[in-house]
Amino acid sequence: METHQSIAKKAFPIILANASAPLLGLADTAAIGHTGGAQEIGAIALGALIFSFVYWGFGFLRMGTTGFTAQAFGAGKLAEVRDTGLRALLMGLGIGIFLILLQQAILWTSLYLLDTSESIKMLVGDYFDVRIWGAPATLGTFAILGVLVGLGETRKLLLLQLFLNGLNILLNLFFVVVLGLGVKGIAMGTIIAEWSSFCLGLWIVHKTLCKMLAGVLAAFNWKVLLEKGKFIEMMLVNGNIMIRTLALLFGFAWFTNRAAGFGDGILAANHILLQFVSLSAFFLDGYAYVVEMMVGKAIGARDKDKFSTELKLANQLAGITALVLALLFFFAGELAINGLTTDIMVRSYAHSFLPLACLYILISFYAFQLDGVFIGATRSKEMRNASLFSVLIFLLSAELLSGPFGNTGLWISFIVYVFVRGMSLRFYMPRVRALFVN
Fold this sequence. Notes:
Largest sheet: none
Order of helices and strands: HHHHHHHHHHHHHHHH
Structural class: mainly alpha
Number of domains: 2
Mean pLDDT: 86
Low-confidence stretches: none
Radius of gyration: 22 Å
Number of helices: 16
């Protein structure tokens, strides 16, 4: 049975892994900033945005794999743990190859949607043409991370993420600063790091399974692995997670787009406050990942008491963390804002809306936690429905409130959005609890 201490120990490596990601972006910007100009920096930012959007859409390869792995492990179905990881790996590699085949269509569509100069678009194309070859490795690594989280091996996840980001930083600095390859050098460093991390991840998972599952790895059966029903089940779960993820992306994108209508100062202020929200998500996501693992194992073992007790403990830790983060930003946020911008108008706006951003952070932990529950339970249909419903409520409330109350109304609607996300998932909780009596 997990305790507060053991949950925190599992969550902490995930928090560190999440926090290491922004360092890569800073290093890339610094490398280009010292060897190129504004166009090169803009190209890197837009190129990374394209891949973030594409790859985030396939985040189900991590989430779905975690749920299936944890359930199989909790049920003692060790061969299914192996097969789940291999199915997800094949799916990730297949999707990655498909993206390479569609690279020209993806690039053309992306450049068409980008509102920037032709010279920057050319540089984005140079970046894209190189980096797309890392797609199979990146998506395959998603599956590997899903297995590690499902097995509760969060320290190994941290090792893999630090290796990926650390090697990426070193290679990008070498190719850009030493060799002077510019935008293409950033892309080259990234794909080498992606493929190296993929190989390391395969080795880590193989060694982990050999240690945990012993002779099960030898009893491999291709017929069972490629069983049609299992792939269909995985695709249905993953498809719903993908819709849920796109709904969340749409909600944040719509928030930013609506803020742009209030002027450049409001847009910039909201962008700064969203950085606080994103930083808080690094911490809250750590607990959500652990919940995915714990819930999946409890369902696999059909242990309802374990499910209820461990979820309560995780919720307490996440709630306390959200409160501490909200208070931290409330009291130190003005200092952080002043450090991020010298624009007096942007500072003033950001200071004004800071309490609302803090309230969002405080409330958001419940949605994170229940996301973890439904991922661990592989109840993706309910996640999809809750996400679509909450986005609809967000749009309706924003239409009603942002008109008369401006950006204040928009932030209130954003808070309503994350609150409804949590409550919508709570509505479906009886379906998760019902899994223990089937």
